[in-house]
TrEMBL record:
The lineage of its organism: Bacteria, Bacillati, Actinomycetota, Actinomycetes, Micrococcales. InterPro entries: DNA-binding_RecF, DNA-binding_RecF_CS, P-loop_NTPase, RecF/RecN/SMC_N, RecF_2. Gene3D superfamilies: P-loop containing nucleotide triphosphate hydrolases, RecF/RecN/SMC, N-terminal domain. This is DNA replication and repair protein RecF. Belongs to the RecF family. Residues 3-394 form the RecF/RecN/SMC N-terminal domain. It comes from Nesterenkonia rhizosphaerae. The keyword Zinc does not apply. It is found in: Cytoplasm. Its main location: cytoplasm.
Length: 413
């Protein structure tokens, strides 16, 4: 998988920018805040329709502009596709594939696969459950593009159900409310079960890779473990507090053995059980939007206990595992995901830096290395073997420009 051209229009700090990308490493160099991560983020957005930094689209559009556009020429082996995504905050995003008619943005999912490493990855360990849910969802959507729609549908049903619970609290529970709630319960159980099933599949595919990658990165004898936490299997309380004693004893959640129909039934039953408390609190208390992933080293949770180095190793292991799951899913030549390393080398100690550089250079792997997009403030931060094709990113009058390193003519924004 690779991009040969990337064009940004009104994306973050860029009025207009164009880059010709090479198949191997591509390094974006420039001072802090000049717009390197903005480019890395745009490539990630093309593959997942989400940013690793923000949960809504508004900040992606340049101040004062109405929409942002990302265009790219993508290649997978001998196949090529011209991709375009229009980001319209507050309205539906649109996509065009091979300059065809505009379609729903979700149609673009699955065409480009990326794995992005960033300093924000520490939040996978230290942050809220939402960050860990996003890790699973982003990977699940890249593996099963149809899930992009399911996720949107689930969020829509959830919003509508929560709005209904609020009306019930204000107006009292009428028979109309009862029949409408019954419809939302069915839809929430149906879409929620499909989302949950996909997450559980992704988690079970990640599990062996996380523990192997953690060993490789840390050379620790401790085992990195992942377990899905859900109020449906009793590992998460209604207040989203993990019941860690039961969670740490076993990695496999019984939910992983259930099919979509069984999960839907369980979710529907749980909604009925919590209905009284949901009406009191006017919020949906069970479902994949409340779930979490417990990360532990042996039987000790990582969050709150692990050292800084262990936290970094675990975060890198999760991303590396995602990369390997994608390769396992499609091992054909030229299908490796694009690896995006956003400002990570400066954060790592010498050993983890070396290991990540080896991986990025394709060492120890049967397949040729895929395309790499690396950002760094200075070239000293980037391992020598990756410093092939470099760009200079600069900022003038709050607009960013990007030019091949050493080019005499600057592209004007
Ligand atoms: N929507 C937007 N409109 C205009 N400018 C924006 C927008 N969003 C972000 N910026 C600007 O983009 C710049 C940040 O760019 P970016 O995060 O890519 O920096 P960077 O080069 O990766 O920096 P660092 O090395 O510190 O990580 C900031 O100057 C910020 O003000």
């Amino acid at each position: 998988m690779r991009l040969s051209q990337l064009t940004l229009q009104d994306y973050r700090s860029y009025a207009q920018a164009q880059l010709a990308l090479e198949p191997g490493p591509n390094v974006l160099l420039g001072f802090n805040g000049v717009g390197k991560t903005n480019i890395a983020e745009a490539v990630g957005y093309l593959s997942s329709l989400s940013s690793h930094r923000v949960t809504n689209d508004a900040p992606l559009v340049r101040h004062g502009a109405e929409q942002a556009i990302i265009r790219a020429q993508a290649h997978r082996g001998t196949q090529a596709a011209f991709l375009e995504v229009e980001i319209n905050p507050g309205r539906s995003n649109r996509a065009r594939i091979n300059r065809g008619s505009p379609v729903r943005a979700t149609e673009i999912l699955g065409i480009l696969r990326t794995v992005l490493f960033a300093p924000e990855d520490l939040e996978l360990i230290k942050g809220s459950p939402q960050v860990r849910r996003r890790l699973l969802d982003t990977l699940a959507v890249q593996l099963q593009p149809a899930l992009g729609r399911v996720r949107q549908d689930y969020e829509k049903v959830l919003r509508q159900r929560n709005a209904l619970l609020k009306s019930i609290r204000h107006e009292g529970f009428t028979s109309t409310h009862e029949s409408t709630l019954a419809v939302w319960d069915m839809q929430l159980a149906d879409t929620g079960a499909r989302l949950l099933r996909a997450r559980l599949q992704v988690l079970s595919a990640l599990r062996p890779h996380v523990s192997a990658a953690y060993h490789e990165l840390s050379q620790s004898v401790r085992t990195a473990r992942v377990r899905y936490l859900s109020s449906l299997d009793g590992t998460l309380s209604e207040d989203e507090e993990p019941q860690t004693a039961s969670a740490a004893a076993e990695d496999l959640s019984p939910l992983e053995l259930a099919d979509t129909a069984q999960l839907s039934e369980q979710l529907h039953a749980a909604l009925q059980q919590t209905r009284k408390r949901e009406r009191e609190r006017a919020i949906t208390l069970v479902g994949p939007h409340r779930d979490d992933v417990l990360l532990s080293l042996d039987t000790t949770p990582v969050k709150g206990y692990a050292s800084h180095g262990e936290t970094w190793s675990f975060a890198l292991a999760l991303r590396l595992a995602a990369y390997r799951v994608m390769i396992e899913d499609d091992p054909s030549d030229g299908a490796q995901p694009i690896l995006i390393l956003d400002d990570v080398f400066a954060e790592l100690d010498a050993r983890r830096r070396r290991r990540l550089a080896e991986l990025a250079a394709g060492e120890g792997s049967d397949s040729a290395p895929g395309q790499l997009i690396i950002t760094a403030a200075v070239d000293d931060d980037v391992p020598q073997q990756l410093l092939a094709n470099a760009y200079r990113v600069e900022s003038q009058d709050q607009l960013s420009t990007v030019t091949p390193f050493g080019a005499s003519v600057q592209e004007q924004a």
